[in-house]
């Protein structure tokens, strides 16, 4: 393991909800919940104001509504989240060619790869500057963890939340981990956590005390060795600029959409087992578990989670796939499900350079593959809560709610004061869906680019531009 805390983990704070608050002035400082709004939808992100009421990600939406009845409930606007994610990942890639995205709002960066940092002081300065750059470019806050390993860097960013930075000095890792719950370790989900608790192990220190042999006896060989190593804060994984080149996956299309959530879960478990059989047949194992869901309206989501190490353990693949499913709204029905394992091969230099050249792989995807939704979609889906609209007279706004032939719109923009609410008929021709507005006007960034361009050319305007 390296001796300097030069692995950085960035995690944007309550990402989807924060984007919505930045877009919608009337929601700032308020409880905001983004997710599937149908009867069986789940929470994707809750703002910190909503978390006070006990609402958290992957919670059933119905339960969230009981806990926080007055919160704003919004449907995700993935195209906006993806665009902002690109800006953030761009800032990370400016620090190092070794950037490993885990999802739209989370990534590891190896700061030593090109000398962005080499010791605790330079790492802290780089992390601090990154946080202020992210705020300047996106208007949002992200938390940064810095440590000598990926596991500790991720734990550090979690501890730093919200809007913070935590650096774990090498040598202090075990003292920090010891008293914490076993659940803090990557890969220890509810099932493993329960299993360990029944054996009397609740803290990381108790894993160390139990010893490696006991761990292997409790959770199996593959998981046991890894778990023991993590409890000792041993983590040698390097940051890999990952390209999703190789994977093993299986999927099923259903003649009739599946509506029953229990049946969806069962199908995912079945697919996970089939995928592992295929994986083992090819004598492979992989680090990233991928879940694919195509919904009744042909929108297709893929969700993935990257594990600490490669696995071909059916229990691990099942547990991970089930966890990924919990964050997916299957309200309205599912017509295709798939489970895959990727990250199978060793990463070559070639891969890293391709990544450095700007090719990114993000874990979160939400694409509308078919444009056929207009005709088939039920009326209320034409005005999803939180989505952008434009009115010929009142300008840009967002849908606050709709039903019974009416749609309520709040007219405001990211840089306006909180706006007024007006109600229209859902078929009012003056009201149209609109493209989202940028959170930060493009102005300052563009003028900076212009200034650099002018400075580079030895023209007479050079000195003028440099002063701007
Ligand atoms: Mg986050």
TrEMBL record:
Subcellular location(s) per record: Cytoplasm
Active site: 106
Matching PROSITE patterns: UMUC (PS50173)
Top-rank lineage group of the source organism: Bacteria
Binding sites annotated in the UniProt record for Mg(2+): 11, 105
InterPro entries tied to this protein: DNA/RNA_pol_sf, DNA_pol_Y-fam_lit_finger_sf, DNA_pol_Y-fam_little_finger, DNA_polymerase-Y, DNApol_IV, Rev_trsase/Diguanyl_cyclase, UmuC
All residue ranges annotated as the UmuC domain in the record: 7-189
SUPFAM superfamilies xref list: DNA/RNA polymerases, Lesion bypass DNA polymerase (Y-family), little finger domain
GO CC field: cytosol
Main location: cytoplasm
Gene Ontology terms: biological process: DNA repair; DNA-templated DNA replication; error-prone translesion synthesis; SOS response
Keywords, sorted A to Z: Cytoplasm, DNA damage, DNA repair, DNA replication, DNA-binding, DNA-directed DNA polymerase, Magnesium, Metal-binding, Mutator protein, Nucleotidyltransferase, Transferase
Cofactors demanded by this protein: Mg(2+)
One of the record's GO molecular function terms: magnesium ion binding
Reactions the enzyme catalyzes: DNA(n) + a 2'-deoxyribonucleoside 5'-triphosphate = DNA(n+1) + diphosphate
EC number: 2.7.7.7
Site residues (Substrate discrimination), renumbered to this chain: 16
Region named Disordered: 414-468
Quaternary structure (record): Monomer.
Physiological role: Poorly processive, error-prone DNA polymerase involved in untargeted mutagenesis. Copies undamaged DNA at stalled replication forks, which arise in vivo from mismatched or misaligned primer ends. These misaligned primers can be extended by PolIV. Exhibits no 3'-5' exonuclease (proofreading) activity. May be involved in translesional synthesis, in conjunction with the beta clamp from PolIII.
Family listed: Belongs to the DNA polymerase type-Y family.
Official protein name in the record: DNA polymerase IV
Natural source organism: Streptomyces acidicola
The organism's taxonomic lineage, starting at the top: Bacteria, Bacillati, Actinomycetota, Actinomycetes, Kitasatosporales
């Amino acid at each position: 393991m390296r001796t300097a805390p030069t692995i950085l983990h960035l995690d944007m704070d309550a990402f989807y909800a924060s984007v919505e608050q930045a877009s919608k002035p009337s929601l700032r400082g308020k409880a905001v919940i983004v997710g599937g709004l149908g009867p069986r939808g789940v929470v994707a992100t809750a703002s910190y104001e909503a978390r006070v009421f006990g609402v958290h990600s992957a919670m059933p939406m119905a339960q969230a509504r009981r806990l926080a009845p007055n919160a704003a409930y919004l449907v995700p606007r993935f195209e906006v989240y993806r665009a902002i994610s690109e800006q953030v990942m761009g800032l990370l890639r400016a620090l190092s060619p070794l950037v490993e995205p885990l999802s739209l709002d989370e990534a590891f960066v190896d700061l030593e790869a090109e000398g962005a940092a080499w010791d605790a002081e330079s790492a802290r300065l780089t992390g601090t500057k990154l946080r202020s750059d992210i705020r300047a470019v996106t208007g949002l806050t992200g938390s940064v963890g810095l440590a000598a390993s990926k596991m500790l860097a991720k734990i550090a960013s979690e501890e730093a939340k919200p809007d913070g930075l935590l650096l774990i000095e090498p040598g202090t890792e075990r003292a920090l981990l010891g008293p914490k719950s076993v659940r803090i370790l990557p890969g220890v989900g509810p099932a493993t956590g329960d299993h360990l608790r029944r054996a009397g192990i609740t803290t990381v220190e108790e894993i160390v005390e139990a010893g490696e042999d006991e761990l292997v006896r409790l959770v199996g060989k593959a998981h046991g060795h890894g778990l023991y190593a993590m409890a000792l804060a041993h983590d040698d994984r390097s940051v890999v600029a990952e390209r999703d080149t190789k994977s093993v996956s299986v999927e099923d299309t259903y003649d009739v959409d599946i509506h029953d959530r229990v049946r969806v879960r069962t199908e995912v478990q079945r697919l996970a087992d089939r995928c592992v059989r295929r994986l083992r047949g090819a004598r492979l194992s992989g680090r990233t578990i991928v879940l694919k869901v195509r919904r009744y309206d042909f929108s297709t989501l893929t969700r993935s989670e990257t594990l600490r190490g490669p696995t071909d353990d059916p229990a691990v693949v099942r547990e991970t796939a089930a966890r990924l499913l919990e964050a997916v709204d299957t309200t309205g029905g599912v017509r295709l499900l798939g489970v895959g394992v990727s990250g199978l091969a060793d990463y070559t230099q070639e891969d890293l350079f391709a990544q450095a050249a700007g090719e990114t792989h993000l874990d979160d995807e939400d694409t509308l593959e078919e444009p056929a939704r207009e005709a088939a979609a039920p009326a209320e889906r034409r005005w999803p809560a939180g989505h952008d609209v434009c009115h010929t007279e009142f300008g840009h706004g967002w849908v606050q709610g709709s039903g019974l032939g009416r749609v309520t719109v709040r007219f405001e923009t990211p840089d306006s004061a909180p706006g007024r609410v007006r109600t229209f008929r859902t078929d009012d021709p003056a009201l149209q869906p609109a493209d989202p507005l940028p959170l930060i006007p493009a102005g300052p960034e563009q003028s900076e680019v212009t200034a650099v361009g002018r400075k580079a050319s030895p023209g007479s305007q050079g000195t003028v531009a440099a002063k701007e």
